Amino acid sequence: MDEQVRNVCFQQVVALAAAGARGLEPQLPEKQIIDWPCAAQLAMQQGVLPIVSCAVMRNSNPDVPSELGEQIIEHTRMAAAKNQIRQQRIMWLINQLEHAGIDAKLIKGYAVADCYDKPECRTSTDTDILINRKQERDAYEVLRNLGFRVDRRNATSHHAVCQHPKYGMVELHVQLYDELIHEGWFGALSEDDLIKEKEIRIETANGEYTTLGYTDHALFLVIHMVKHFIGIGINIRMMLDATLFILKHKADIDFDRFWHVLRKLHFECVMNCVLTMLVRTGCFDWHEFPGASESENEQVDLFVREVINASAASGVSQEDNAYYEYSKAVMQKSVGRTKYCTYMIRWALRNAKSQMLPGREQLFVLYNADQHKKWLLPFLQVRRLIDLPLQKIKSGVTPQRLLGKRIDDHTVVSDRMKVFRTLEMV
Fold it and tell me: Is residue 400 within 8 Å of 411, Cβ to Cβ?
């Protein structure tokens, strides 16, 4: 599929998703023909197929091939039903954590689903729960007793990954952002600048939960979105999450503080690109977003191209490198190259230590070993001590991360850094 066709298909899916998210009939050019197999596949990749389905069902003149249309609607019904059941389970899980004295806050995911016209169609692949760092071990114990496999976070990470056959993946956060983001991106900002408001209690048909204050949560959704844009790429659902949350809670959001923080982080342009793209669908209006402004066409076109190309990048390692290259550029500007290299060496050593000595459960899963054979543990530990350094050397990214080594101008990373500069992020 050539670039122009992909771009048209992407814009159509954005328009359909925006309409479905708001409960409106989609507004597409009359003469524009939708390649529905392509649109359905892209919507699936972008995490919005059930939301697009809502728009299709509202369309007074749908031109979806009947067989494909039935498949999309059936998929949506099944996804919505599973999502409802999983949400009920997550609400019960939060109740169990709270009953055990854990200060648990639900963030993004199900905490933003009610901003959609059909909340059950905003599906989640995982659940994010923010806890007090001092209660981390107690929270692990609660989850293990409920049958979760807990993969503890490493020394520089901000969350553990917990897996359960019924509850799915739960990410247990001790802070909102990775250490590298705190040290590299935030500069003079601290977590206290990003979490200022009193937590709020939300009641739903499936249960109650505590979450962040409205401005804090809006900032988190945008920063989380930009983090993925810099790294492995973002999808339409992330953009809708941030936009719909702001729209629903605009009476409670401190927009002066919201835009002030985004300007300090150099993320204002990216957010305005997202809003410009969505306003152009006809499903949103500028007056709904206080303090926002329309981005230049060149910036919007570049942003859209990056979102489209994210899944077609040459490899995860290249996109992973873009994340570190961006962090390097921002951090070196604020503290200088020497302090940056010193920090990154310490960061890498702490990170490597955690990766080389993972928990017992994690080791058995990593090497697909029988967990009942406890005598295998020392052998697995030795194997890990050998395997990890070899993997790091083979990946070839260590010199670039630690020593500020320049990337070849013809690589994906260098091109992405040019994009970040055009979007005023560096």
Answer: no
Residue that has been written with the tokens 């071990």 in this structure: 137
C-alpha to C-alpha distance for 236 and 308, rounded to whole angstroms: 10
Both tokens of 372, joined, read: 């009942």
Distance between CA atoms of 131 and 139, rounded to whole angstroms?
A: 8
371/326 Cα distance (integer angstroms): 40
DSSP class of 64? -
Q: Which amino acid is at 318?
A: Q
Which of 328, 333, 326, 245 lies closest to 289, judged by CA? 245
Least confident residue range of 28-32, 152-156, 261-265: 28-32
- Alpha-carbon dihedral sign for residues 12, 114, 287, 229: negative
Distances (CA, A) of 391 to 316, 349, 350: 15, 15, 17
What is the C-alpha to C-alpha distance for residues 293 and 424, in angstroms, rounded to an integer?
15
Count of CB atoms situated within 10 Å of the CB of 85 = 12
Is the model's pTM score more than 0.70? yes
Amino acid at 282: G
Q: Which two tokens stand for residue 198?
A: 């009193």
3-state secondary structure of 301: helix
**Sign of the CA dihedral running 373, 379, 385, 387:** negative
What's the confidence (pLDDT) of residue 154?
A: 83
In DSSP terms, which residues pair with 129 in a beta bridge? Answer: 106, 172
Going by C-beta distance under 8 Å and a sequence separation of 6 or more, which residues neighbour residue 232? 310, 316, 319, 320
Burial class (CB in 10 A: 0-12, 13-18, 19+), 269: buried
Rounded to whole angstroms, the Cα distance separating 164 from 144 reads 10
Q: Which helix (H) or strand (E) element contains residue 151?
A: strand 149-151
Whether the CB-CB separation of 283 and 18 falls below 8 Å is answered with yes
| Exposure string for 40-61, b = 16+ CB within 10 A, e = fewer | bebbeebbbbbbbbbbbebbee
pLDDT tens per residue across span 217-236: 999 999 999 999 998 889 99
Task: In whole angstroms, give the CA distance from residue 106 to residue 176.
Answer: 11
Alpha carbon 69 to its chain centroid, in Å, reads 29
76 with 54: CB under 8 angstroms?
yes
Cα–Cα nearest to 181, from 318, 326, 315: 326
Question: In degrees, to the nearest 5, what angle opens at C-alpha 360 toward C-alphas 358 and 363?
Answer: 65
